[in-house]
Amino acid sequence: MKLNKNLFSLSLIFSISPAFASVVNTSDKWPEPDNIKVCWQIEKPPALAELIPELSDIQTAEDIDKIDDERIKVLHKAYGNIIPGELAQAAFMESLASIFDEKTGFKYPIPELSYIKNTEEIFEIDNEKLKYLHSAYGNFIPREIKLFKYHLTVVLQQKVGFTLIDKKIPFYKGLTEHFVDNSYHDKTNIRFTGWKDCAKDDLDSTNNIRISFNTMLMGNKYITTGAYEGGAGRPNERNKGSATLKITVPPKLNNNTFNFLKNTVIHELGHALGLRHEQNRTDKGICYTNMYVHPKSIIIDGTSTKEGGYNHYVGSYDSDSIMNYCSSSSEIAKGELTRGDLKGLAYLYPDFVKVKPMSCTKHPESRPLPSHISHKKYCQGYRNQASCESKRWHDKPVCKWQ
Ligand SMILES: [Zn+2]
Q1: How many helices (H) and strands (E) would you count in the chain?
Q2: Coil, helix or strand for 47?
Q3: How far apart are CA 37 and CA 196, in angstroms?
Q4: How confident is the model at residue 308 (pLDDT cuts 50, 70, 90)?
Q5: Could you give a GO molecular-function term held by this entry (predicted)?
Q6: Ligand 1: distance of its center to the CA of 294 in Å?
Q7: Cα–ligand 1 centroid distance for 244 (angstroms)
């Protein structure tokens, strides 16, 4: 998952249909899918005063809130662009949109953007230009000043939050590996290997996955989320130096956040392998979360990708996919690769992923059968879902079509 454009509605991950689906990106495939190197690039966040020496007196979020507008404007002009990239860039696009009217144009003159005729075009401005516009015009936009205070708070809290998870990093590393073992390693011949701290050479590689952990406070809650910076597929030159899979963990795990973390790890590695968001298909069916899909995010089957490949729909829409933000809430607990996800992976890596044909096998909730009957024998005779799943024993289903 990438950080949502709307900072304040970070929607987190996560069904009845034949699940044969995926959207895949055919470029940036891994040359050795059975040996994808993973390393840890744990980056301790900087203290606010390290980024902005003038703020060495600031201790709490309340202190930031009290900084007066004049001082904030000066700081914003000098330091607006050093706030963590993805937060600031997406937010600045929103800020520009907030002062733009499709009939009358920008509220303040911005000659560099006189060509803009509709809001969509604002979201196509590239990062370099955005950075320039941010320092030149950021202070004209009231929303920007408010957001800058918010961003400063995030920087402050990330440092504080990290001290709470620092000692638990080994635990989170182990858990991440465990999730991978129980998903990709269990169901495919794709192998994520290494799992050591990144060496110097690893940092510039486009042939590995570099994982970082941090914390993030939203309101008064630590959120669990992830972002794969490489797009869909192997990371590219742009990602050199920094972590490519950023996982945000809470200081304490409960059942709910455990499941979110499991989903996040499997989902983000799905991106790393080349899977895209299922809810962005034009044939999107059931959406349990009623998630709004920005028109710009829609992925059309067969269109070419920036990286030089093409987008391809493998099978029909999969409402259960681990790559689908529309999955029903009950699916959060599952955190599993669906047949659709596997079909997508099999399309990209046919030698390493095989999808078995549907068959009738033991239902996970089945009660033990009488000792002389095995599930294997009992279930194997059924040829379709209805006949397979109609049999019950002690009020529990016996077989499952899968
Ligand atoms: Zn995603």
Answers
A1: 14, 15
A2: coil
A3: 9
A4: confident
A5: metalloendopeptidase activity
A6: 14
A7: 13
Separation of alpha carbons 153 and 134, rounded Å: 19
Q: Which of 179, 260, 283, 180 minimizes the C-alpha distance to 14? A: 260
Distance 275 CA to ligand 1 centre (A): 9
Q: How close is the Cα of 145 to the center of ligand 1, in Å?
A: 29
C-beta separation of 226 from 245 below 8 A = yes
Ligand 1 centroid to Cα of residue 233, in Å, is 12
Q: How far is the CA of 155 from the centre of ligand 1 (A)?
A: 23
Task: Report yes or no: 44 and 162 within 8 Å, Cβ to Cβ.
Answer: yes
pLDDT digits (tens, 9 = 90+) for 86-130: 667 778 898 999 999 989 999 988 999 999 999 889 988 988 898
362, β-bridge pairs: 399
pLDDT at 21: 46
Mean per-residue pLDDT for 158-167? Answer: 92
DSSP element (H, E) containing 105? strand 105-106
Ligand 1 centroid–CA 400 distance in Å is: 29
**Dihedral over Cα of 306, 185, 329, 246: its sign:** negative
Which string of DSSP letters, residue by residue, matches 299-316? Answer: B-TTPBPTTSSBEEE-SS
Rounded Cα–Cα distance for residues 262 and 252 (Å): 15
